[in-house]
Amino acid sequence: MSTLEVLAPGMLTTVQDLGREGFGPMGVAPSGAADPVSLRIGNRLVGNAEGAAGLEMTLLGGTFQFQGACVVALTGSDFCATLDDAPVSPWNSFKVEPGQTLRLGPTRSGARCYLCIEGGISVPQFLGSASTHLLSGLGGLEGRALRKGDVLKIGDRDAPETKQKRTGKNACSTGSARDANRARKVAAKALELLAPRKVLRVTPGPQSDWFSKAAQNAFYANAYRVTEEANRMGLRLQGPTLPEGAHGDASEKARGDAPGKVRGEMISEGVSLGAIQIAAGGLPIILFVEQQTTGGYAKIANVISADLHSLGQLRPRHEIRFELVSFETARKLLMEQEELLASAELIVSASGLFRRTLRLAK
Amino acid sequence: MPANKSSTARFEPASDQSLLIYFGGEAKKSRAKARPLQSQFTIQASEQVRKLLRLLELEPIAGVRNLHPAYCSLLVKFDAAKWRHEKLEQELRKYLVRLDRVRLPEPQQVEIPVCYGGEFGPDLEDVASTHGIRPQRVIELHSSATYLVYFLGFTPGFAYLGELPQALITPRLPTPRKKVPAGSVGIAGNQTGVYPFETPGGWRLLGRTPVSMFRTDREGLSLLSIGDRVRFVPIAREQFAELAKEEVQQPASLRNSGQAEGGPYMERANDLPGNSKLGQWRGKECA
User: Fold this and answer.
1) Which of A127, A203, A248 faces B15 most closely, judged by CB atoms?
2) Helix/strand/coil for B249
3) What are the domain boundaries of chain A?
4) How far from A295 is each of A196, B84, B143, CA to CA, in Å?
5) Smallest CA–CA separation between B62 and chain A, in Å?
6) pTM above 0.90, yes or no
7) Does domain A3-186 have CATH number 2.60.120?
8) DSSP state, B261?
9) Nearest-CA distance B115 → chain A (Å)
10) Using the beta-carbon criterion (under 8 Å), do A135 and B65 form an inter-chain contact?
């Protein structure tokens, strides 16, 4: 079993997979990659099952030394990576020789970059997932962000749970990532379609009708700026506050999720990923992958599933807007995205060309 | 007819992959109808929530990925490739008409030792003076009630317990603390609870328990499950230290379940071990 040593951890680097769904009754949030699309693609580039564990880096990447030879890929935002001082570009698989050092720098674009390694990162599973939940210190490597000197095990690349299925819709025409050093890359057209959005499409929230027409209009007309308080739990936004009366009882709720004792408070209820709560002062908070599982603020809207990965690439000072779509449209966009992610055309041989036209959404 | 029961439920899409089911009068769409928790209505609604959760645990719906119970609602997260809101609502209504026949599991009776006041309960004095009573009276009141675990939320293992005796109802802190130590016992509004992890929090802290609320080396992981009944038992400072030491050693008797397969949402929700240790603190005096 090969290993990877952390020479520098970067700003906030954690082990993540696609999270642990199904433990809501225990108050356990799914967690998982903030930009799951990037993680899934990274895993496909190196021949893993798309849910294998990788490293999620935030704003400033880490430096890693590889003990053995392996195939790796970087996806998500461009963190100015070098392999033994030679630049390597994201969205490609490439081979690392024993003793080589992969160094990542500050981001050139969005908030997160993923390092996927053939075989995946091997940590003890907690409730069926390798994902780190920082708030409770559960999962991942000892429930925490990586530190200098940590040594991570790389999983068995031929284990059935790590290995990409070679048949069916996920089959890749280029075969194993190891075969004859054939590098893979992501089709340019697919990258364009999956690029993180700054106009986030949303569906109405369960309390959207608590907000006046004027407030709702303002919400969709305003541009909001992501504040420094943006992390895996949620993103606090800055911008024009919603007009008086807009948040109604929700403002009474501002101090938290106590149910119904203070007059007019909203009773706590389960909250969905990407829910947009209007907190004290009429400003939005978007709940994210390490969100609290229940809460008592009124929710005006919810980011659609197809745009959730875009949240993972937002960083402080990014400006965003919201665009209302129907549930049917949201569903259609998700299905199209899933179709693209599952398609054999997503990954191409790095030397080959992506010729076929994807008949998929803009 | 049992079918009438289901008509009191209201469905509301929460996102493109989740659906909220509200029970009881609190479920009314108008915010003006939001009522205090302390009502028979809420307790009934909570029972409906627990029964639906139970039924969905026993007979899971394929394509339902997660469930988040709360006071009078259940958030159902589903696979959008398999379900649309309307179809899932139809399916769930078939469950709702059967709720009357659902038997909830026998609730665990759990006693949680608490050392009140001092550095463990920095808000005890304030709460007492707010209500014009002595701190000792706050302790007596807080440890006199039997609380229902309405649901777990916020963080893993955080149980929302109700309801606090009337005389203790206190709003949460105006500014939440950045760090609340694990094991802190707090109150907010008419609810009480124990912080399983060191997290931020705005509840007023009365004391601390040495018992772990959530640990990965314990079967069931969370000490409390939805529907359990809880009492707080005052302990002295020395007992706290003793119990804290035992708590560290205890895992020997507990089975490791942190390696569980990624599971269906129903897993372990009603399957906690018998806590034979609990209850041994009864009757001991607080310092």
Assistant:
1) A203
2) helix
3) 3-186, 199-334
4) 27, 24, 26
5) 12
6) no
7) yes
8) P
9) 23
10) no
